[in-house]
Design goal:
Number of helices of chain B: 12
Radius of gyration of chain B: 26 Å
Structural class of chain B: alpha/beta
Structural class of chain A: alpha+beta
Number of domains of chain B: 2
Oligomer: heterodimer
Helix content of chain A: 10-25%
Number of strands of chain A: 4
Chain lengths: ~100, ~350
């Protein structure tokens, strides 16, 4: 078990789609560098998900993982954009 | 091409580039304040180009930013007394993080701007520094293979850039995390409030017009005594959902935003409810209970809806999480609002 670090502001538990294939990780640290939520930690030169519920599915880690070890269904957690997408073809995120 | 914040040209081996300073003018600050209130927010762009700050030489750092002027101003104002090249890419006037989420802040766009600016002729060093929050849209390794420039991710906040640069481009753990403190949340309140005002005014007007129905003293007299109660309920929706929820977010109970909003709505409406209940004279207590209870349910539903809308402006929600919350919250909000308006109308008509 990895230690669960309690962030002050955390959204719903056990919903995010973040997955790691530990076999593919080469320990480059890129995931930990780009994550703005301190989800990742390196243990014995391999990435581990330290705080899964803190993940916001921004996709920065998966995109910048050269080993293809990370997958996440990325998007923007914005109710307004989801409602708008019900009524239009625009699949854009928030803010205009 | 004339932009008021550009002060002349700076000569480089690849020709002149616009020069900017790190001091924000009164006009820059006024513009920043206006877009925080939603005025001209979608036309607050900077011309995408390479800019010179100070007296950058061939070894000067190259900092990449979006062409939203609020982002660009935050970048240059954090670099007082320093020299750097600022490479502004075209994100259609959208900030770094949202543009990365949309895919307009991308490796292809950064590579294109590096080539267009002929950056390779201007600087000898072969590194560009991206804002960390561009990472959801930028595959850094693709920039290096396309341009020969290694793209590295700087800190989340531009204000940490001086410390980051002085440390030899090393970010502390703190610089890598997106905070969401009281000041940052307060800055978002106007953009929650302004878009909500229009429909709140419409809802208040409709309720006030309906409030004259029922009772025994005539339409206008009833409207005068019961309309303000309905208007106060709408005001508590706005205050709870668009002001109290952002400000008191960590203190409000629950993880779901709709729960936080509903609690804020109940807490704000409760004093009104209690004051009216206690000061009301004789008359039909059941009808008054229906009227006040109905408005309370409406206040909770409305505040919950506004709070749910705030998810997109926050730093810690996920798409999967918001979808999950919407599946249970939206039907509940509709049911509460409908039951609330129904009970309120029944109470008014029965009195």
């Amino acid at each position: 078990m990895t230690e669960r670090v309690k962030s002050r502001l955390v959204y719903l538990a056990d919903v995010v789609t973040l997955r790691l294939d530990p076999g593919k990780c080469t320990g480059c640290r890129m995931c930990a560098t780009v994550c703005p939520r301190a989800v990742w930690e390196l243990e014995d030169r391999r990435a581990v998900i330290r705080d899964r519920d803190a993940c916001i599915e921004c996709g920065a880690c998966a995109r910048n993982c050269a080993d293809g070890a990370i997958s996440v269904r990325s998007g923007v957690g914005c109710a307004n954009a989801i409602i708008t997408s019900y009524f239009s073809k625009d699949k854009g995120g928030c803010c205009g | 091409m004339a932009q008021p914040f550009v002060g002349g040209a700076f000569e480089t081996p690849a020709g002149p580039v616009p020069r900017v300073g790190s001091d924000l003018s009164a006009a820059d600050r006024r513009g920043g304040l206006k877009v925080r209130w939603g005025i001209g927010r979608m036309e607050y762009g900077v011309v995408p180009a390479l800019y010179a700050l100070g007296e950058p030489d061939a070894e000067a750092p190259v900092l990449v930013s979006s062409n939203y002027k609020l982002s660009f101003d935050a970048l240059r104002s954090s670099l007082a007394g320093r020299s750097a090249f600022l490479l502004v890419v075209d994100t259609q006037g959208i900030n770094v993080w949202c543009a990365a989420g949309k895919g307009t802040f991308s490796a292809a766009e950064v590579s294109r701007r590096i080539a267009e600016a002929r950056l390779g002729e201007i600087v000898r060093q072969r590194r560009v520094i991206l804002p960390q929050l561009s990472a959801p849209g930028v595959t850094a390794r693709e920039i290096e293979s396309a341009t020969g420039f290694k793209a590295i991710f700087g800190p989340v906040r531009s204000e940490d850039l001086p410390a980051y640069l002085d440390a030899g481009c090393r970010a502390t753990d703190e610089m890598r995390r997106k905070s969401f403190d009281l000041g940052e949340r307060a800055a978002l309140v106007p953009m929650e409030l302004v878009p909500a005002l229009k429909w709140a005014a419409a809802l208040a007007a409709a309720l006030v017009l309906l409030s004259g129905l029922g009772g025994g003293t005539g339409y206008l007299a009833e409207l005068a005594s019961h309309g303000p109660i309905a208007a106060l309920a709408v005001a508590s929706i706005l205050l709870a959902g668009a002001v109290a929820t952002p400000l008191f977010l960590p203190l409000l109970p629950g993880r779901a935003f709709s729960v936080k909003g509903a609690v804020a709505g109940a807490v704000l409406f409760a004093p009104i409810w209690i004051a009216i209940w206690l000061t009301a004279g004789g008359g039909d207590r059941v009808a008054l209970g229906l009227e006040l209870g109905g408005l309370g349910a409406l206040a909770m539903a409305g505040a919950a809806f506004l709070a749910l809308n705030f998810t997109g402006a926050t730093t810690f929600t996920s798409l999967s999480g918001v979808r999950r919350e919407m599946r249970f919250a939206i039907p509940l909000e509709i049911a509460f609002a409908a039951a609330g308006v129904g009970a309120w109308l029944a109470g008014r008509l029965a009195s």
